[in-house]
Specification:
The protein is of the alpha+beta class. The protein has four helices and eight strands. It has a single domain, classed as Alpha-Beta Plaits, CATH 3.30.70. It has a four-stranded antiparallel β-sheet, covered by helices on one side. Helix 2 runs antiparallel to helix 3. InterPro entries: MTH1187/YkoF-like (IPR029756), Thiamine_BP (IPR002767), UPF0045_domain (IPR051614). This is Thiamine-binding protein domain-containing protein.
Length: 160
């Protein structure tokens, strides 16, 4: 199969055109995102985390929300050789979700709306979305399959 050109909304005609198939279907997406509520008046984000978990649970999409916080060291702008501790407890921990692109992006949107409704004046969000078309990804297994593959490689290293 080959990708087709799109010129002014008219695609090249070809029976084996992969592009039209992709356009007509909803891509399966594996995403992780991190919401950072700003202007809540509190250093706690427990309510916002719980609200996002409720939203994600209601979508029916597979998701994971790791709750083990790690401290990240970032260089300070004043002195790049000195590091300041960045406290990730100020963040809504990365949420990993997967499913049809439209549903995943709607879930992220709905988390934003819910956190604003909780009183956050601003929200900064980092989003990473991966898709693939070279093979089928079993629904709900995208992240798990990636982890299993890496664990298998590491297990082989130990046997060597």
């Amino acid at each position: 199969m080959r990708l087709c050109k799109v010129v002014e909304g008219i695609k090249e005609s070809a029976s084996d055109c992969l592009f039209s198939t992709i356009i007509m279907s909803d891509l399966y997406a594996v995403a992780d995102f991190c919401l950072i509520p700003i202007g809540t008046g509190s250093t706690s984000v427990a309510e916002e985390v719980a609200e996002c978990q409720r939203i994600l649970a209601a979508t029916g999409l597979k998701y994971k929300m790791p709750l083990n916080h790690q401290v990240v060291m970032v260089p300070t702008s004043a002195s790049p050789n000195k590091f300041a501790q960045y406290n990730p407890r100020l963040l809504i921990t990365h949420a990993f979700t997967e499913g049809p692109w439209s549903q995943v992006s709607k879930a992220i949107h709905d988390c934003h709306a819910a956190v604003h409704a909780k009183g956050a004046q601003r929200i900064a969000t980092d989003i990473r979305i991966g898709t693939r078309i070279d093979r089928e990804i079993p629904v709900g297994q995208g992240n798990d399959l990636k982890v299993s593959r890496v664990e298998g490689i590491l297990a082989q290293d130990k046997q060597s």
